[in-house]
């Protein structure tokens, strides 16, 4: 997944306006453009409550609120749509905590494992892509929640 689409305040404003974000939280002030967002990196997600959209920072790799540590986060970067309700890791978030994950492109790795090559997949017109996602808040330290997310595939 690429995160290059917001490199200036004006671009952030266009994205926020285009997505109808009412509450930007600390995202606009803390976001820094990057060529690539890797699993367990910080990114941002868009959540909605009573038709009010909010941008918030989140770490890629879902950690359930009941987890005692984040060792499985890198294994929970993608969630298969057909098993969301069967897997305990995703069931509650599927019913209660859905989000959208914006990006301008993503990489799909192709070829034999020893010679993987990145294939850059992006909209022809350079538009924003929105991935379906799920999110959770867990507490790695007392009274300090960390929001995490997974992308639904």
Features:
153 residues; alpha/beta; hypothetical protein yedk fold; two-stranded antiparallel ribbon; 16% helix; 39% strand
Describe this structure in words.
It is a single chain. The protein is an alpha/beta fold and 153 residues long. It has one domain: hypothetical protein yedk fold (Alpha-Beta Complex), CATH 3.90.1680.10. 16% of the residues lie in helices and 39% in strands. It is built from three helices and nine strands. Strands 1, 2, 3, 4, 5, 8 and 9 form a seven-stranded mixed β-sheet that branches. It has a two-stranded antiparallel sheet with strand order 6-7. The N terminus is likely disordered.
CATH superfamily: SOS response associated peptidase-like
Cα distance spanning the termini: 13 Å
The backbone outline, from C-alpha atoms, is: globular
Helical percentage: 10-25%
Put simply, the count of helices is 3
Number of E-state strands: 9
SSE blueprint:
Blueprint: H1 9-19, E1 21-23, H2 27-30, E2 42-49, E3 52-60, E4 78-79, H3 88-96, E5 98-103, E6 106-110, E7 117-121, E8 129-141, E9 144-152
Parallel strand pairs: 1-3, 3-9, 4-9
Antiparallel strand pairs: 2-3, 5-8, 6-7, 8-9
């Amino acid at each position: 997944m690429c995160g290059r689409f917001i490199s200036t305040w004006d671009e952030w404003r266009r994205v926020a306006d285009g997505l109808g974000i009412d509450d930007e939280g600390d995202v606009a002030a803390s976001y820094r453009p990057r060529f690539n967002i890797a699993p367990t990196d910080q990114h941002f997600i868009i959540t909605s409550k009573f038709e009010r959209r909010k941008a918030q920072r989140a770490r890629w790799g879902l950690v359930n609120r009941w987890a005692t540590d984040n060792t499985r986060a890198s294994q929970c970067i993608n969630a298969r749509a057909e098993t969301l309700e069967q897997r305990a890791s995703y069931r509650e978030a599927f019913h209660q905590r859905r989000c959208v994950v914006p990006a301008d492109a993503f990489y799909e790795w192709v070829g034999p494992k020893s010679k993987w090559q990145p294939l850059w997949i992006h909209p022809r017109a350079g538009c924003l892509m929105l991935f379906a996602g799920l999110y959770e808040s867990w507490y790695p330290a007392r009274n300090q929640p960390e929001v995490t997310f997974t992308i639904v595939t």
